[in-house]
Amino acid sequence: MLALRASVEDKQALSDVIAERVKDLVFGNVLVYISIGSEVSTVPLINLLEAKDNIRLFAPYTQGCEIVALPLIKTGLPDRNGNLPLDHYGKIANREKPTKIDCCITPLVGFNDKGYRIGYGKGCYDRYFARTSVRKIGLAFSVQRVNFLQDNTDVPLDCCVTEKDVIYF
Q1: Cα distance between the two ends of the chain
Q2: Strand extents, DSSP E, the chain
Q3: Is pLDDT larger for residue 21 or for residue 95?
Q4: Contacts of the segment 82-89: beta carbons below 8 A, 24+ positions apart
Q5: Which among 19, 42, 105, 150 has most CB atoms closer than 10 A?
Q6: How many angstroms separate the CA atoms of 153 and 79, rounded?
Q7: Shortest CA distance to 6 belongs to which of 28, 33, 39?
Q8: Neighbour-count burial of 50, counting CB atoms closer than 10 A to its CB (0-12 exposed, 13-18 middle, 19+ buried)
């Protein structure tokens, strides 16, 4: 699946199309992954959302296998886990009571017709989804839609956005 995603041509143009489709689907506090490798680029989406008054952007910071949503204050080069340098995140005033995230834009390696995603195998996003009531939006290229049986710990997406359409589950 990683090789198939890597073989997609003109990823930047397709990522721009996907960003345009997503921008009106989100609201409030939005957790958006920082793209790495051959993932759908989130740079155009972040640029579009930063211009909206009703959106506050957060980026994931992975500690072990847990995702913490930290305010996004500037973008940059992520590490291999998609974490930005710590000075790219704002401070959370109350560490005991994290900000409620309304929508989560999540990366994936593949997705099926039931809304389940194949991630990178650590279960970070599934654990995050299981403990929150966040709206789950996957970003993918259309070739990433495949048939597979989900695991019993997987949490389905609410929708997946590709360059061709928005697929609701």
Answers
A1: 21
A2: 28-32, 55-63, 66-71, 103-106, 110-111, 117-118, 135-139, 159-161, 166-168
A3: 21
A4: 82/33, 82/34, 82/35, 82/36, 82/107, 83/34, 84/34, 84/59, 86/61, 88/59, 89/59, 89/61
A5: 105
A6: 26
A7: 39
A8: exposed
- C-alpha 149 chain-centroid distance: 21
Which residue, chain included where needed, has tokens 């989130």?
42
Residue 64 token pair: 């072990």
Would you place residue 12 in the very low, low, confident or very high pLDDT band (cuts 50, 70, 90)? Answer: very high
Per-residue pLDDT tens for 120-160?
888 999 999 999 999 999 999 999 999 999 999 999 999 99
Pairing of strands 55-63, 28-32: parallel
Which one-letter amino acid corresponds to residue 64? G
Q: Which two tokens stand for residue 83?
A: 């974490």
